[in-house]
Design goal:
With 196 residues, the chain is an alpha+beta fold. 38% of the residues lie in helices and 22% in strands. The protein has seven helices and seven strands, in the order βαββαβββαααααβ. The chain is globular, with a radius of gyration of 17 Å.
């Protein structure tokens, strides 16, 4: 079974877990949070189990750190929805492992009685193709948003939007690896350690 939870990426001179957004976590839950990756210039990624992160935490983290931040909402290591926010409130989102996301988000018929039977029908496969095409059409905008977000973080390398689009269309067994590669390609410093 893969990881389900959040990868929170932000910059701070102090350990990221000291951010006030984590103050509400009880000690038992806080003990499960750990550094997943560290990068130079204070960039850190925390791995947080499901239930310990809320959408409202991202703006609070950006305000506390005075730097852009992003979070990957990972489901069973198979897919992730990445949301980034900069200090001006500009937000972007992108799916990682698009094919799996399309299967998950495919529109089900209203009169569906048995989901397992539905998964093996031509109608399901058509719904997945339709959702995949919708998600694919959003990739250029998603990639532009990611590149603009990285630029607002002051990364020294200007990433090529086409390479980010290619990455958003790619597949990795572990969505966490794809998230790390996305940060690399956006020009953030290379990870110096990875703890799992």
């Amino acid at each position: 079974m893969g990881f389900s939870g959040h990868l929170v990426f932000a910059r701070s001179n102090r350990p990221l877990l000291e951010a006030p957004v984590f103050d509400s976590l009880d000690e038992e839950l806080k003990a499960t949070v750990h550094t997943w990756e560290s990068r130079s210039a204070g960039w850190q990624t925390l791995q947080i189990d499901s239930g310990a992160w809320d959408d409202a935490d991202l703006p609070a983290l950006v305000e506390w750190s005075s730097a852009p931040a992003c979070v990957a909402d990972v489901s069973d290591s198979s897919l992730a929805l990445v949301t980034g926010l900069d200090t001006t409130g500009q937000r972007w989102q992108a799916w990682l492992n698009l094919d799996i996301a399309a299967r998950l988000l495919a529109e089900e018929p209203e009169d569906l009685e048995d989901q397992l039977l539905w998964l093996d029908t031509p109608e399901f496969h058509e719904a997945v193709r339709h959702k995949r095409a919708e998600l694919d059409a959003e990739i250029p905008t998603d990639a532009e948003g990611a590149v603009a977000w990285a630029a607002s973080a002051g990364v020294p390398v200007t990433p090529e939007t086409a390479r980010i689009e290619e990455l958003l269309r790619s597949h990795e067994t572990f969505a966490e690896d794809l998230f790390s590669t996305l940060l690399d390609q956006l020009g953030f410093p290379q990870a110096t350690q990875a703890l799992t």
